[in-house]
Amino acid sequence: MRPAKVRCLTRAQLPSDTITLARYLLGKIVVRDWGTEQASGRIVETEAYNIGDPAGHAYRGMTPRNRSLFLDRGYAYVYLAYGTSLMLNVSSEKAGIGGGVLIRALEPLTGIEIMERRRGTTKRRDLTRGPGRLAAALDIDRRLDGDDLCAEGPLWLGSDGERVKTIRASRRIGISRAAHRLLRFYVADNPFVSGAARLNRPPTRRAP
DNA sequence: TTGGCGATTGGCT
DNA sequence: GCCAATCGCCAAT
User: Which nucleotide across the nucleic acid strands is nearest to A77, CA versus C1'?
Assistant: First the structure.
């Protein structure tokens, strides 16, 4: 059976609220197109950085770096973290309002060999598990900042109709402000989700 | 002009 | 689990 056709998401399909979008994007597909070849992966983990979030890059207003977060929803915001790792975000609010969804992990779908080459490993599970890793695998850098993800250009968002079964939430990874908020979303029991195992278990009730 | 600080990763103990 | 690498950003000087 051939894989289902991947259709580009339209801007109208995207929820115009950061947290709703972060959940909506789980199960959707990131496609990287170099013209002669292509690679893609299914989104299995996201984090929401919504309006008024002190952990979000948009919190202090627009700057040269973060201006893409203030575009209409569905545009790429790409930045370098720690001087070593590039991060892919999807702008998530109306034009003029800053918000974004960080894509934290993908399940590799196509173009596996390209991603293996770019990552210097053939360990399938490590190819796109983690935001810096998936950006490296897909050759995503600041040149793609501001790219329209709702158009079939070098980088776009698609769907093959697949729906994720169970979405779980946790604290976000690697931040200190608003750290308790449950704004990280991931597909339950998916091996390509990043983060420590204890973050990826179902919520447990506190002992009495 | 400068210095502190990350939405991480990979290597080593 | 701990920690160094590495560098662009930006608030404050």
Answer: B7
Model confidence pLDDT, tens digit, residues A148-173? 999 999 999 999 999 999 999 999 99
Q: Which two tokens stand for residue A179?
A: 């750290």
Band (pLDDT 50/70/90 cuts) for residue A3 is: low
Nearest to A28 by CA among A152, A137, A168, A156: A156
| Residues near A84 by beta carbon (within 8 Å), at least 6 away in sequence | A132
Residues with CB under 7 A from strand B: A 47, 49, 55-58, 69, 77, 80-85, 87, 89, 100, 102, 119, 126, 130-133, 136, 172-176, 194
